[in-house]
Amino acid sequence: MRKRADGEMDENNNPVSGTNEPTTQLAEELRRFAYQNGMSAERTDAFIQNVWESVGNLDAADDTELYFYRAAAEQLAQFPDLQNDGSLIGFQEDRESHFALQSLPFNQRIATVLYLVNGRNLSFAAQVLQLNEPEMLSYIDSAKSELAMKLAVADQQELLQRLEFLEKSIKRLKLPDREVLMEDHISPAEAPQPQVPAAKKPAIWIVAAAIAMLAGVVGASFFFDSFRLPSASEATAGQLTQEMAEEMEQQYEETRENAKQRLGLEEEEFVEFAYVAGADEEKDRLFSRSELKQHEDDAELFAQQVEELLWRVETPKGMTESLVNSGHMQTDEIDRFMQLYLEKTNELQDFAEGILKNNEDQLPAASEHYGEPQLLIEDIPDASAELQQLLTGWSEYGLRFRLTEPDRMYLLIKDTESLQWLPQFQTHPFAHMYLEIFAVYPYFDEQGWLVEPFQLSNEFYKMLYLLVEEPTDSKLKAEIEVIYEQTVWQILKGAEQDIYTDGVVKPEIREFWKTLTYHDALAAILLPVIDEMEDSGWQHSAFLDNLEYGDSLRMLELAKQGELSETLPNGDFQVESEMVDLADFDYSRVKELYARFKQSHDTNLLAGVQPLDVYFLYFYANHEKDPETMYHLLADSELKPSLEEYMVDWEPIPELTETALWVEIREEMTQRIYEKVMIHPSVMYEEQDIGFHQSNPLQPALVTERDQIWMIQYELQEFSQGSNPELQKRGLEAYELLANNKKLPDDTRPFIIAYALLHAIDNENIAVANKLLQPGVEGREAEFWRNFASSHMVAGFENMTSMSFAATDLNVLDQVDANLQISYEMEESEVWHEQLMMVLTPEGWRFELFPNY
């Protein structure tokens, strides 16, 4: 079949221009591209007309997209000073970015639009402008400097984010309906409104038919012209062969078909997914003549790109299975895999939730099969066809039922657990955090929060760790930044019913806000909010009223640059990192300070003294058997006894220089505890397996509450060696009181409470065991306590080697909590350490058990 010449007519006497017609999608992209470069919206149709005609005839294997973009750039170059008002762009900030782009010199502008705004790869953008890649990068660097100055943006990451937001606005553009016919010759400079005869069909329809007919003749052939990949017999080492390319293309088609069938979808449903359409488009690009020619001498690189292409079209389960035997992956490969997986499961989640929502009345209120949804069909005998289709293919979707909203059983989360177990992901330093953050996202919807505040605290920790510590600028990190900003806004200024009850902030939200002040970036916002809320009875904060959406990211950027801490309470200090070898240490560095402080115990003498010197001062007082000075070095605490009580109960703590090899403090070890700042020294011991009783007193926290004065945080501590008959007896008495429904004295020692629990478990008295839990905790069934006893070694007394207790109120809530450690000797001289959490309640010390127990 010959090619028709320009101007030739088809059998219906309609003009045919060959195969130079772009798809509707590409035509709209080019119109937006012209608008981005300053052309008014009304002129973009005429612009497309000129681009079509300038391209000429193309072979079926040509890189159509590249040719059209290159022609578009050449057309735009004729009018380098074009500008429009950006009125179609919805957000003012994005319009500002659009104006700044239009003020750039033409080459910088068009390079920036392609590469930084529209996200085209460097190779494609350079080919469009007919530049080499270093020249392209030179334009980009110049453009970034110009844009940063015009937009008053100091940080490059913020600039890139501004351009990403602009891209999203551009994609939402609604350009005027297209009416221009292909044969209408209109100059973009003149831009008159085209007069379209009503009887004529749009040329885009005619040429699309011509392309389809041409494709049928071409069949599986790659090229029309003389270029052809070498065959296997002709190729040299490392070359891409014709057979390889055909096999890879066939592999894509088979993978695509299998993925569609495993999801249980028809073709028309499958192609509706953006990830499928994107994969198909990428496949056409990758197997185009220009790309094959470019990769002719690098089969390995081409194979890597095909591997990613298969990821893109696979099901989530298929993606995971493809890595089981794939071996080592580079960090950026894993990042890309996660990005594709999460984008795909976002789409599938929306799709699946839509089906479940449509069939909500068929979903059982409770079923043991929600963990295995393929079996859920057994509970829905009259399931609709679409619901049955979804549940049958469920394992491929990478989703789980959320189940935290019993009134909305159709809500889902992403299943990332299978990825966590892959060796490639376990070697990635940040993958587990990324996957955990995205697994339960979104954290809220139009009806409120989908994640409990205590769980959101964990998500904030992960987000901040990634945003501050993760060294790359991956797309995943940029998405975390968006999630972070959204979530900060939601927890502070979201739906009123989520935050307030009768105009007063809910107690759990108060606790949540205070917990988040561990992080400087959040403390800068939350501390003034909490202070004003407390003054108003938790009803109002002017600081919160004036908070703007972008403030959370600005605070985060200041924190990353180290410019925020000094603006926070007790943040204006400098900690000098230092490690001290204790082999020949004699306290000489603090003896003079000790002599002065001992005379007056005036804490103002400690202003500006480094925390490590206050630490040594405390242990020198212990060395000198001076409990009074030690007492005055202790920070105030609810647990701190009077001086008289302290002096009566005082016993020397282990000698620092005889127990430890070295001690270290580093600046990065500081931790904000609401308005206080805390630091823990790091200690290396002479004994490899030093016990809790020996190590804990040597690692007290140091806190500063005012004027750069560091003090030792008080901890209430007890220790018992071996199986203590006296404590066992007193614990039995406490147990019998509770068994007879009598109260324990409020000041009952924690060790006696612990022995009472051991007696209750030993006697399988579940009622007494439950009485020893903190108030508000639901009593546990007998099976729980039996499992607890068998798996945690807490039944019996004979093998007990020690019991240690330590309590503190150094936390954002000023709540007294503690941990109790019981050590048991096992066979072959092994030791088992059992940790139990305790809390001080109005009725005395009680146990705090976690669900995983």
Summarize the structure.
With 853 residues, the protein is of the alpha+beta class. It is built from 37 helices and 20 strands.
Task: Give your account of this protein's structure.
The protein has 853 residues and is of the alpha+beta class. It has five domains: 8-212, no CATH class; 242-445, no CATH class; 451-559, no CATH class; 578-714; 719-848, Nuclear Transport Factor 2, Chain: A. Helix content is 48%, strand content 10%. It contains 37 helices and 20 strands. It has a five-stranded antiparallel sheet with strand order 16-17-18-19-20. It has a four-stranded antiparallel sheet with strand order 11-12-14-15, covered by helices on one side. It has a three-stranded antiparallel sheet with strand order 9-10-13. A hairpin with a 2-residue loop joins strand 5 and strand 6 (448-449). It is globular. Residues 1-19 and 179-226 have low confidence and may be disordered.
Task: Estimate the global geometry from the Cα principal axes.
Answer: globular
Low-confidence stretches: 1-19, 179-226
**CA distance, first residue to last residue:** 76 Å
| Number of separate strands | 20
Key traits:
four-stranded antiparallel β-sheet, 37 helices, globular, alpha+beta, 5 domains
List the helices and strands and how they pair.
Elements: E1 8-9, E2 15-16, H1 24-36, H2 44-55, H3 64-77, H4 92-102, H5 106-117, H6 122-129, H7 133-150, H8 156-171, H9 203-218, H10 242-263, H11 267-270, H12 274-286, H13 289-294, H14 299-313, H15 316-322, H16 331-358, H17 385-392, E3 399-401, E4 412-414, H18 417-420, H19 423-426, H20 431-439, E5 444-445, E6 448-449, H21 453-469, H22 475-493, H23 496-499, E7 500-501, E8 504-505, H24 507-516, H25 520-535, H26 542-545, H27 551-560, E9 578-581, H28 588-600, H29 611-623, H30 627-632, H31 643-649, H32 656-659, E10 660-665, E11 671-673, E12 676-679, E13 682-685, H33 692-695, E14 702-704, E15 710-712, E16 716-721, H34 725-739, H35 750-762, H36 766-771, H37 782-792, E17 800-808, E18 817-825, E19 831-841, E20 844-848
Antiparallel strand pairs: 1-2, 3-4, 5-6, 7-8, 9-10, 10-13, 11-12, 12-14, 14-15, 16-17, 17-18, 18-19, 19-20
Helix pairs in contact: 1-2, 1-3, 2-3, 3-6, 4-8, 5-6, 5-7, 6-7, 10-14, 12-14, 16-20, 20-21, 21-22, 21-24, 24-25, 25-27, 28-29, 34-35
Region (Disordered): 1-22
Biased composition (Polar residues): 12-22
Coiled coil: 238-269
